[in-house]
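1st attempt posting a full record on here, be nice pls
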Amino acid sequence: MPLSPRVPDLAALDLLLSVIELGSLGRAAKAHGISQPSASSRIRYLEQLVGVPVLERTTLGSRATPAGALIAEWARDVVEAAARLDAGIDTLRVQRDSRLRVAASQTVAEYLFPKWLMALRVRMPDTSIALESGNSAEVAKAVLEGRAGIGFVESPKVPRDLESHVVARDRLVVVVAPGHRWAKRTEITVQELANTPLIYREPGSGTRISFERAMAAGMPDWEPSVVLELSSTTAIKTAVAEGIAPAVLSSLAVASELAEGALVSPTVTGLDLDRQLCAVWPSGQRPTGPARDLYAIARRPI
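the predicted structure (as tokens):
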């Protein structure tokens, strides 16, 4: 049942108890970390609300009126109950902040999360963090089922029951072995790519979904030709380096191989392979505790 609007707030009742205990409005204000004018204003609000004076001001300090003493007696149990409630809620917060479960797609988990984790450890050194890595579809499922407090995906589309917020940007690139016919070229056409069998990640992978959508946007009748399907980015890089076939991967995932010359990446003309990496959580909720801090860290430029 809703409380009457005449019921004073807890801060005013707590201050009244302190004034009676300490014998002075000034000492009570100091104990509550507020100015004396603010304390006076709070007591005046209380008196206006209940309709009777609750304190008598004297040259020696302040003391309760008979009505104020009665209100204080009733208020003591209320304030003590509120203190127990606050302590209980604080315990729940500590339990929440002691452990964070994260789900992240492979690209995010391998190439971005370690840096985010280091920053989070500085903020919350006592928080235990568990990471579940999978493709974007598996990440979405983990968040929806409550196995993760926050997720990070590469897929351009997430289930309707999840909110999606951009935290970083990435670019897909075509990679080939140094001995491949495209290795000595700086550019290939989108038609050449469309006609070439590729090594793919498994269905549900954000990398695969992003690439297939980019291709279908300009070539509605295009169908992927799959030489090999692998669930590991590392396995795909190895297969490409062995000369089995080209692949399309995140630029984050192949940066070191391109720098070392183990893989080569020609530019694809006429194809937009930019994409967004997103944080996800259940619709209608907001990340709290360490999940909120991790989200804030992920949004910072690397």
